[in-house]
Specification:
The protein is α/β, with parallel strands linked by helices. The chain is built from 21 helices and 16 strands. The two termini are about 35 Å apart.
């Protein structure tokens, strides 16, 4: 049988989900064509879709899900008898919508074994019979019931990246000395032990955490280094959910490839709890740590159930700096509890902590996303702002009680636009001036301390994080 795997967007990375799925499907006996529409749309022609027995879409994030809609519709129209699957974090959350487009199977966390089983079933049952059974099979679970059951513990396979565009077509890392490094991507774990209310991982994993066997991770890293990667992004929701497992892997990575750098994502809470590990991160080549700070307002952080405070964030910045680790902060800058004054205060805090160069401009325009299944919907404080579910955007729309805040968001978003790789200080200054004006504050004084050199901060040239 022939399987076609499709990725629509994965933040400038070579799509890991397709590579992992391809390994499992090939082991199941399927021939596989993996297509990254974001980089190689021309390969997705009608003949390929018509010839497929199984067509599977990887939906790891909201943007990828929305971009998949026309491609799913095209695949179903061209091949009404193919088995069509959707897998990834955002698939179960949008199960009803996906099935309305003609998707047969919706898989969430730890999808590989189920996807391989589907492939085997397609191989033994006539395609037209499967098509006629589609309606009955689709009614078996809802988005909520599907994600509450315990997830399996898989013995993973080394991802197979055969047929994907080369790493040179993806994001690169800009180093302080001007060097650019090709970036690979892998995962040492999935899920998260924590239940942050705004996080899309939570409805799928519900506090469950799964590790990828070290030998699988290291083999995947070695293959990408052989393909030219000089830097590896570890895409775990939180690298320190299992700190012993994580450090074992980066120690081995550094021993095998001492010139290869890497980056990870770690909660503020874990940076404080495992502060003794920060020097080891620096010593093993960690270029930067991304941490979802989200807000500097303690009430908002409590509503998000983030597990840290403003003071914790400030302490984590100092700890990372002392350890020689660059911290890259991300934010949900606009939410229902923001005020004009508190947005201006956020900018001043970023400036005071000398983090302007550490924060991608898009982070200053991020507006709270509330998808189906979000734990934020459990809160009266959130529900009172919700206007209803919007099937066009696949989110619960909300408005701010102060229209001036929504207006500021529109204007900040316009300033940022697609200026993802321009001088961050120039964009920050423009945003800061507008925010202070809207909040009725005087212009910010000129910085009295020397600014840290932008070139000292490594950064990916596609700095989206969502």
């Amino acid at each position: 049988m022939h399987s076609v795997l499709i990725s629509t967007y994965e933040m400038g990375r070579q799509p890991f989900g397709l590579a992992s799925a391809a390994a499992w499907l090939r082991e199941a006996g399927s021939t596989v064509t993996a297509i990254d529409v974001a980089k190689d749309r021309g390969r997705l022609d009608a003949a390929m879709l018509v010839s497929a027995d199984l067509i599977a879409f990887h939906l790891p994030m909201h943007t990828a899900t929305r971009l998949a809609e026309p491609v799913i519709a095209k695949a179903r129209a061209l091949n009404p008898t193919a088995r069509v699957c959707a897998f990834g974090l955002y698939a179960p959350l949008n199960a009803e919508w996906l099935r309305s487009l003609g998707v047969d199977d919706v898989l969430g966390g730890e999808f590989e074994a189920d996807l391989a089983a589907i492939a085997r079933s397609v191989d033994v049952v006539p395609r037209r019979t499967l098509s006629s059974q589609r309606t009955e099979e689709c009614d078996s679970s809802s988005a909520i019931s599907a994600v509450k059951r315990p997830l399996p513990r898989l013995q993973f396979l080394v991802p197979d990246r055969t047929g994907l565009p080369p790493l040179v077509q993806y994001a690169s890392l800009q180093m302080p000395d001007g060097e650019r490094r090709l970036v690979g991507y892998t995962e040492t774990s999935r899920g998260c032990r924590h239940l942050c209310r705004h996080c899309p991982v939570v409805p799928i994993y519900n506090g469950q955490f799964r590790v990828v066997q070290p030998e699988v991770v290291l083999a995947d890293v070695a293959a990408q280094v052989a393909a030219g990667a000089g830097h590896i992004t570890f895409g775990d929701p939180d690298f320190f959910n299992g700190p012993t497992h994580a450090m074992r892997i980066v120690d081995a990575l550094h021993a095998a490839h001492p010139s290869v750098s890497y980056d990870v994502t770690i909660k503020i809470e874990h940076l404080l709890r495992h502060r003794d590990l920060l020097p080891r991160l620096a010593d093993t080549g960690c270029a930067f740590v991304t941490s979802a700070v989200e807000s500097i307002d303690d009430r908002t952080l409590a509503l998000f159930d983030k597990g840290h405070t403003r003071a914790d964030f400030i302490e984590a910045v100092a700890l990372c700096r002392d350890a020689g680790v660059t911290i890259v902060a991300t934010f949900v800058a606009f939410h229902p509890w923001l005020t004009l004054a508190s947005y201006a205060e956020l900018l001043e805090t970023i400036s005071d902590l000398e983090l302007v160069d550490h924060v991608a401009p898009i982070q200053l325009a991020i507006r709270l996303l509330v998808p189906e299944g979000s734990r934020l919907l459990e809160l009266d404080e959130m529900r009172r702002h919700v206007l209803g579910f919007d099937p066009a955007t696949l989110t619960y729309r909300w408005s701010h009680p102060d229209p001036r805040v929504d207006a500021l968001h529109r204007d900040i978003a316009a300033i940022v636009g697609m200026r993802l790789n321009v001088d961050r200080r120039a964009v920050f200054a423009e945003i800061r001036a507008l925010a202070r004006e809207r909040a009725g504050l005087p212009p910010a004084p000129d910085a009295t301390r020397p600014a840290r050199d932008r070139a000292t901060v490594p950064y990916l040239n596609e700095p989206w994080y969502c």
